[in-house]
Automatic annotation (TrEMBL):
InterPro entries xref list: Acyl_CoA_acyltransferase, GNAT_dom
Species per Swiss-Prot/TrEMBL record: Variovorax gossypii
Domain (N-acetyltransferase) ranges: 73-158
Keyword Ligase: no
Gene Ontology molecular function, alphabetical: acyltransferase activity, transferring groups other than amino-acyl groups
Protein name: GNAT family N-acetyltransferase
Classification via PANTHER family: ACETYLTRANSFERASE
Length: 183
């Protein structure tokens, strides 16, 4: 498994994952249908939207329907001959800190039929190198207390649990674990 930049050559496999019910945003299952529509309307624009180092894209829709400022960032795709999942990095220029509405620097999601193969662990390790290349000295990653697989992925990459917290109401007032990884 390797990380690849989203590109037309990989798009049919990405769409296939969407058609099988996978959605990059697990909090919004309808996001899969939204992405299929965006790809159908303009595949080049869709692909370009996934790499936005200057935060030129539109505002980000929160679970409660509110919208917040987009941060610079990008998504990479996990690839083993077919699409395996997505991992993304976001940051604020000039600081390791994130605004309160952003739960972490890195998020990842492996398609169910490729889970338990170590892909998330390897993808996170690769993304940490990219994060260091963006000038970050540390990253924070959050997960749910019941997501033991994600906790293992983070810990395998040097993550240290720093707190249990409740997300903002705009994020659903959920209990989360926050990990820090020094780069």
């Amino acid at each position: 498994m390797e990380l690849v930049w989203p590109a037309k050559a990989y798009l049919p496999s990405y769409v296939s994952a969407l058609n099988r019910g996978w959605a990059r945003d697990e909090t919004r299952p309808e996001s899969g249908a939204e992405e299929r529509a965006a790809i159908k309307a303009d595949p080049d624009r869709f692909l370009a939207s996934l790499v936005d180092r200057k935060a030129r894209g539109g505002r980000i829709l929160m679970p409660d329907g509110s919208k917040v400022r987009r941060l610079p960032g990008y998504k990479c795709w996990m690839w083993d001959g077919e699409f395996c999942g997505s991992i993304d990095l976001r940051w604020q220029p000039g600081t390791d800190a994130l605004p309160l509405y952003c739960l972490g620097h890195i998020g990842y999601n492996v398609v169910p039929w490729k889970q338990r193969k170590g892909y998330a662990t390897r993808a996170l390790g690769s993304m940490l190198k990219l994060a260091a290349g963006e000038g970050l000295g540390r990253v924070e990653i959050t997960t749910s207390p019941g997501n033991l697989a994600s906790q293992k992925v983070i810990e395998a990459n040097g993550g240290v649990l720093i707190e249990t917290f409740i997300t903002l109401p705009s994020q659903g007032s959920l209990t989360k674990l926050r990990y820090r990884i020094d780069l």
